[in-house]
# Entry
Amino acid sequence: MRIVLLIDMDYFFAQIEERENPRFKGKPVVVGADPQGGNGRGVVSTANYEARKFGIHSALPISIAWRKCPAAIFLPVNMDLYGKTSRKIMDIVRNFSPVWEIVSLDEAYLDVSFVKNFNKAGELATKLKQEIFKKEKLTSTIGIGPNKVIAKMAADKAKPNGLLIVRPSDVDDFLNRLDAEELPGIGPKTAQKLLEMGIKTIKDIKRINKKDLSAHFGKAGGYIYERARGIDNAPVVNDDTIKSIGKEYTFEKDTRDSQLIFEIFDSLIFEAYREMRKEKLLAKTVTVVCRYADFETHTKGKSLKEATMDYKTVEKLAKTLLLKFFIEKPKMIRLIGIRLSVI
Ligand code: TTP
Ligand code: MG
Ligand code: MG
# Structure
C-alpha cells in the first residue's frame, strides 16, 4: 500500500508579500502585472483569499482584476524573493522523506509509505506544516491519499491551511461527491464536452466505458477512466534519480589488477550506457567513483561540451577518469563505479 502526500503553499506569492508587509494582512492583495489604472495588459499571478472574494484569481487579466476591486493592493512579481523562499521550504520538505518530487515553486509530493498507516502520515504532515510555519511564517495545505491524484485532490479540498486524509476505503465516497472538472486532467474544454454527453460528476463518468472515453478524448480518456475510479500508478520521482544512472561494483578481494579492474569497468560503462539509452537520455557528465581498501572514497567527474549518446565518447572519458585514480594513489582498490548524468 502506498501513502502519498502533496503539500501546496497557500496563496504563495501573495502570502510572502503579506509576511514581508504585515500591514497588508486582512486586505485584498493581488500579485501580478502593473494594473496601470485599469489599462494594464498582463495577468494576475495570484491573489490572497480576501481578493479572491472579489472574483480575482491566477491568470485573470489584470485590467479585469482592477475593475473587480480597484482598492486592492496591487504588487509586482518579486521572483527573487519567492524563489529564495521556495528553496528554503523545499529543503524542509525533502527532510520528511527520501522519496520526493518538487512540482513547482510551492508544491511537492512525498512518498511516505514507510510510516505504514494513514494516521501516522497525518502526524507527519502536521509536523511538516508546523516546521514550515515556524521557520518561514507561511501556511500550507496538505493532502494525503493512496496515490498522487487523490493526494492532490485532497489538498485542493482542504485549502487554505488545511490537512485532509483520504484513506483507500474513503476514495470512492470522496470522488463520488465531486464534479467531473475537479478531476486533475479535466480542463474546461473536456468538462464542456462531458456535459454535452450528460456527464456532470465524477460518479457520472463511471457510467461510460473505457472504449467510449478513449474514442472521445484519445489517450486522456484512459486516464479519465482510471482516475474516476481512484486509480493512479504514477510514482513519486525526483528529477535527480531519473536523470542520472549509476553502476558500481565491489571486488571480491581488494585489487590493483588493472586488467581485471578495466574489464569490470567496461561492463559498468556498458550497463549504465544501456540504461541511459532505454530512458532516452543523453549523457552530459561522466562521474567515476573509486573506493580504496581503507574505504577512502573519491569521485572524479567531467562534463562534455555537449550531451551525447555516443558510446565511444562516454567510454573514453570514463576510462581517462579511472586511469587518474590508478596513477594518483598506489593503494588497493575496493570498489569502482560510474555515473552518467544529463546535466
Ligand atoms: P498555486 O499553488 O496554484 O496557487 P497559490 O499558491 O497562489 O494559491 P493556493 O492557495 O490556491 O494554492 O500557484 C503557486 C504560485 O504560482 C502562485 O502563488 C503564483 C504562481 N502562479 C502564477 O504565477 N500563475 C498562475 O497561473 C498560477 C496558477 C500560479
Ligand atoms: Mg499554492
Ligand atoms: Mg501550487
